[in-house]
Design brief:
Elements: H1 2-22, H2 32-50, H3 56-79, H4 81-88, E1 92-96, E2 99-100, H5 102-107, H6 112-121, E3 130-135, E4 141-145, E5 158-162, E6 165-166, H7 168-174, H8 178-187, E7 196-201, E8 206-211, E9 217-220
Antiparallel strand pairs: 1-2, 1-3, 3-4, 5-6, 5-7, 7-8, 8-9
């Protein structure tokens, strides 16, 4: 037991030194290659701590080897610009002034619901209240709002159609029939629900509609029986 504690303490000190040498970014927002290295270090450190039959030196050398590899990759990332985007990736602009960029979402294995969740986490509830939104290469989310965006989100929008399919739960929350929204689509010249990338509706009657491959549009409608939420 005492031997395990001593080995663990030694590995802990080695890891602490290595993580400090790797710099502040390693303990903050990590690039993909840094996440891989961190996971490898954690795995390599566990083996000699748990199995006393493995020489402690093996674990220390493995951790130090990973550190050397990290420094080499970091140097390439900083000095060789053509390889930087390959190693660390590039930011993806998922919303622009035309609306949602479905291609960029798919490239990052995201959908409209993921985007809306990220927007809400950043304090933006209406898709039309931002000009640009992007995911950085390390996965963090940023958005540039329109001027006076606070006045554009006075009610919580609900996703009615997501990638060509009605959201039954949100539809029931509105208390409106599916045919109500289908009629609006027909009036807007949308022949099929499957062509709709996203349709949101808020309690004031503002709709955000984006057809796949087209610029978004906002509509103001009156709900049947004056419904609001």
């Amino acid at each position: 037991m005492v031997l395990v504690m001593i080995r663990t303490a030694i590995i802990y000190v080695v890891l602490l030194i290595v993580m400090r040498l790797m710099g502040k970014r390693q303990i903050g927002e990590m690039q993909p290659f840094e996440l891989v290295i961190t996971l490898l270090i954690a795995e390599l450190a566990c083996i000699p701590m748990a199995d006393t039959s493995i020489p402690l030196l093996y674990g220390v050398v493995s951790v130090l080897a990973i550190y050397v590899m990290h420094e080499i990759v970091t140097l390439i990332d900083l000095k060789v610009k053509p390889l930087k985007s390959f190693i660390s990736g590039k930011p993806s602009v998922v919303v622009n002034k035309n609306g949602i960029d479905d291609y960029q979402l798919k490239r990052n294995n995201l959908d409209v619901s993921d985007l809306i969740e990220s927007l809400r986490s950043a304090g933006y509830f209406s898709l039309d209240c931002i000009d640009y939104a992007l995911y950085e290469s390390n996965g963090t989310f940023s958005a540039l709002p329109k001027e006076g965006y606070e006045q554009m989100q006075t009610s919580l929008p609900l996703v009615i159609i997501d990638n060509g399919k009605f959201d039954g739960k949100n539809l029931s929350l509105t208390g409106l029939e599916r045919t109500f929204f289908e009629d609006i689509l027909k009036q807007e010249g949308v022949k099929s629900v499957k062509k709709v990338l996203v349709l949101t509706a808020d309690g004031t009657g503002k709709l955000y509609l984006q057809v796949k491959g087209e610029k978004f549009r906002t509509l103001n409608v009156t709900y049947p029986d004056g419904k609001i939420w």
